[in-house]
């Protein structure tokens, strides 16, 4: 009898496993949302305003941050992140990684169809990843450079072999490099696919209308696989409309008059207003992007002398820059590239917590070449940027450092910076990546294309190489922090002063809308209180 | 007349050709490298080179121009660097929006200018004249971007009921009522700038005509003042007004640039605003070409209209 029961249990367990395999093998899914105890309601429409229009709907060719606003609604990726930045299963379970760190095996969901009716499977994953990493014009080449090959093991399993171990590899699959598109629709779209990507994704919403510079309409995908933490089938909303509104005042007016129900771009001066408006809900967390000054460390340029950079570091008042400058307190004071949501963040790392004018003057005097004078290049056409530069200019003047401000087109500054021809510093930040590697490696490693300060330090190179091969997060954290001490304090590569804020402003009736450090909206968990 | 029109149309070809050369060179002289805009946030040298080749920017400028011109004469203005959309399609989608906005603005401006300008001329130096002159002067003194924002804030926060939405666009074919509601504020914004010019032109032309012998004769014949003004004076006073309106029609695209951005209207002005800083050469070239052509066509239309307004004007000399 006992044997019969155990056989029956074994059979039941086998059936359960089989059922799990048939209906999807992943756990996780949509997160960071909850109905807050109330029963979430289905239906309704939400209009969301972003601060500029998109350039491209093809993840392979997308080069702008705003593009991703649409992509997170229409496409699924292999893995995603929680609001805390933890990587979670999405179209795939979290992969198993070989002992040498070079082979990633992904078990895929088996209940996913693209909006055009074709099936998502291992062949589709291989086609997408190969397209991103092998197409000459792909903007994902750098992110997927570690990949050596992609192999279909079976219809629900894909193995990705890397050339060398790469700890940040999984994090790039969260975003555009990991977004899965229907081969049929992409190939049928041809050159027009970049702006007419209808039915290409498998995401919670289906793009149904795209009018450039005006609006993008999405309808609910009734067959989406995702479920809320309470078991509700997602998404809740019937329609999502995303509008580009470039002017900050007009954007806010649209929210306050109910034309738009949500936005993730509120200018600093308007934050007190929206916080005091009882019809709105304002959320703000530290983002993953940083703001920085980029010196030119090339021999022969002023800032080849590291003590000059340290002098500027000590003369700056970061609190005043954030709170009295155009940001008006929106964001977080920072000293390095690791934001509070990065696992490598150290809240005690505050090397320039208060301005030290005497120390700044001493460092300049130690160089022995008279007062420090340099030029700061800032983007033209943005009054806030200029105001920031002027505030900084007044702070440095207290330490007898003369900073002249020159405005140039953004493209021109980037060109000069990439050629290491800026005479002094530039004012350019970084939108940030969820793995600290994406905020560090390319900017501080000798000879890397985004090493705009022409920085070179053998110890930093060695530490950063180790961060890529180490798999233990604690070990990586230690290595990142050791590197940070060098490229921020001892031998600075650039001057970090703040982190961007991830904002979300919504009408009060909107529920389940979480703010993520990457600043991008996720609509699948959003619902309207009736 | 037909020969004159044909000759003017043929003259447009070399002008358009010169315009394309001018814009082709000017936008390439501007500092900055467009490839860096389109190669993504984190480009490596291989990606930059591939994107440069894909955009055709690895070729010498004369080769780029020849390739563009050979396609342009066949009606293909290339594809946007940024969106990959065909330039002809992008402009074609937006022209009707900009023309609707421009037409509404000119309608408002001309109607008000004719009514108020005529009253001002008839009641010269009266309180009405002084008031209208002051109000229109104040209107033209407001920059577009400021007036647009003021109107948005006024109808959003001061005047209850949100009669006019703070921006956005609905095509007429989708919802005519909403289209007109969304058209009012931007049309007033664009119209205000030209209203003062048109009004003063109507007023001074009418005052000029009022002093002519045939007006005195008309009055001496015992015609009613309304008939004197409308039938005799106004028609003859319209020629300089038509010239100015013709120029304004040609400048619709230019006038729409700021207003379309503030009210987030998907017109050709906004297309240009996005393309210029991102150095989207094909779009900039296309917009400038269309803008120049619209200027030339409207100037020709005005010249033709002269003949209908004043039969004494003949194109015989031009045809000789």
Summarize the structure.
With 530 residues, chain A is of the alpha+beta class. Chain A is built from 15 helices and 21 strands. Chain A has helices at 2-23, 67-74, 122-134, 169-172, 183-189, 248-256, 271-275, 306-315, 318-323, 357-367, 383-397, 410-418, 437-444, 458-469, 473-490, and strands spanning 45-50, 76-77, 79-81, 87-89, 96-97, 103-107, 147-154, 157-162, 179-180, 205-211, 215-220, 239-244, 262-263, 280-295, 332-333, 373-379, 402-408, 425-427, 495-507, 510-511, 527-528.
Question: Helices, strands, pairings?
Answer:
The complex is a heterodimer of chains A (530) and B (320).
Chain A: H1 2-23, E1 45-50, H2 67-74, E2 76-77, E3 79-81, E4 87-89, E5 96-97, E6 103-107, H3 122-134, E7 147-154, E8 157-162, H4 169-172, E9 179-180, H5 183-189, E10 205-211, E11 215-220, E12 239-244, H6 248-256, E13 262-263, H7 271-275, E14 280-295, H8 306-315, H9 318-323, E15 332-333, H10 357-367, E16 373-379, H11 383-397, E17 402-408, H12 410-418, E18 425-427, H13 437-444, H14 458-469, H15 473-490, E19 495-507, E20 510-511, E21 527-528
Parallel strand pairs in A: 1-12, 1-13, 16-17, 16-18
Antiparallel strand pairs in A: 2-9, 3-4, 5-6, 6-8, 7-8, 10-11, 11-12, 13-19, 14-18, 14-19, 15-19, 20-21
Helix pairs in contact in A: 8-10, 13-14, 14-15
Chain B: H1 2-29, H2 34-38, H3 45-54, H4 61-72, H5 87-122, H6 127-141, H7 144-158, H8 176-210, H9 213-220, H10 225-250, H11 252-262, H12 268-275, H13 281-309, H14 316-319
Helix pairs in contact in B: 1-13, 5-6, 5-8, 5-10, 5-11, 5-13, 6-8, 7-8, 8-10, 9-10, 10-13, 11-12, 12-13
